[in-house]
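Service request form, structural biology core

Requester: graduate student, group of Dr. S.
Request type: structure prediction, single chain
Budget code: on file
Notes: please return the result as structure tokens.

Sequence provided:
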Amino acid sequence: MELKREHERGIVEQMIGYLDSLKGMFSEREVRGIIISGREDAVAATVLQGVSKYENSWFCYQVTFAQLVCAE
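Core staff response, request fulfilled:
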């Protein structure tokens, strides 16, 4: 797992690089990629659709705030 705020190369390309490395180390095991981001990226989604050698998933998280009534 890797968490970062900014990155130099595309998120999908980076994930595929990690998956290729893992598959090289553990060729007998299945590897799977998961991307979790705070927003959608149309370019990355298009690139991800072209990746067929690994199973992958993309999740987008959402944060909401609700004001609570505090008793005095």
